[in-house]
Write a sequence for this structure.
């Protein structure tokens, strides 16, 4: 597949995945409001349609850099899936202060399918890659569980599970960079919120919006750097 066709394919995939996530978010919002009218939630004046152009712009733009960097198609798909998933998860966390297990389970299912694809097209490196990702994900979970034990209000288990899923999608190096960037964004967001007296130290902060922004920044910067 040519570079142009790969970029177009990733952009279309991002658009389709975004539509599916949009319906999911609308269904959750309708359920929380005691409504089952998903279409009514979707077409309301202040909808969540911004997810579509944002996902298309981020995935389509970085996909150009991915081609220049010569990344494997399977890895490009992995990054695209993770980037598209973070925006709706950030919305849900912002509104409900929860990271849905069903959404994380769906992502794991997608990752399992990609693992099968990688086992077929990358047999020489698949086992080592899988081992590294699983070990890193385990270390990430263990670390943040310890952090949670020391400071229960610091991070939720949903955020911990999301970090583990991110590791399986992004790979060890990019996942660690994304987690670090996410924590930095979360720190500055908390500082601004407390400085403007919108939040106090005792308040709960939705972390997934910061994770989404931090991960997007890390992926974009690493992608551009790799393409240069």
């Amino acid at each position: 597949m040519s570079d142009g066709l790969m970029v177009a394919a990733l952009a279309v995939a991002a658009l389709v995945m975004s539509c599916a996530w949009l319906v999911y978010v609308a269904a959750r919002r309708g359920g929380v409001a005691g409504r089952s009218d998903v279409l009514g939630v979707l077409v309301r004046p202040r909808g969540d349609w911004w997810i579509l152009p944002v996902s298309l712009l981020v995935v389509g733009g970085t996909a150009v850099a991915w081609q220049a960097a010569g990344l494997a198609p399977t890895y490009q798909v992995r990054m695209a899936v993770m980037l598209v998933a973070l925006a709706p998860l950030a919305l849900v966390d912002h509104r409900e202060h929860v990271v849905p297990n069903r959404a994380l389970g769906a992502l794991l299912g997608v990752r399992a399918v990609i693992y099968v694809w990688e086992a077929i097209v990358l047999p020489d490196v698949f086992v080592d890659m899988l081992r590294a990702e699983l070990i890193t994900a385990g270390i990430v979970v263990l670390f943040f569980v310890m952090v949670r034990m020391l400071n229960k209000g610091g991070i939720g288990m949903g955020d911990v599970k999301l970090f583990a899923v991110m590791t399986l999608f992004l790979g060890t190096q990019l996942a660690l960079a994304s987690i670090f960037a996410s924590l930095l964004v979360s720190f500055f967001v908390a500082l601004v919120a407390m400085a403007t007296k919108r939040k106090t130290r005792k308040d709960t902060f939705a972390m997934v919006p910061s994770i989404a922004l931090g991960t997007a920044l890390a992926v974009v910067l690493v992608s551009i750097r790799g393409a240069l």
Summary: The chain has one domain: 3-227. The two ends are 22 Å apart (CA to CA).
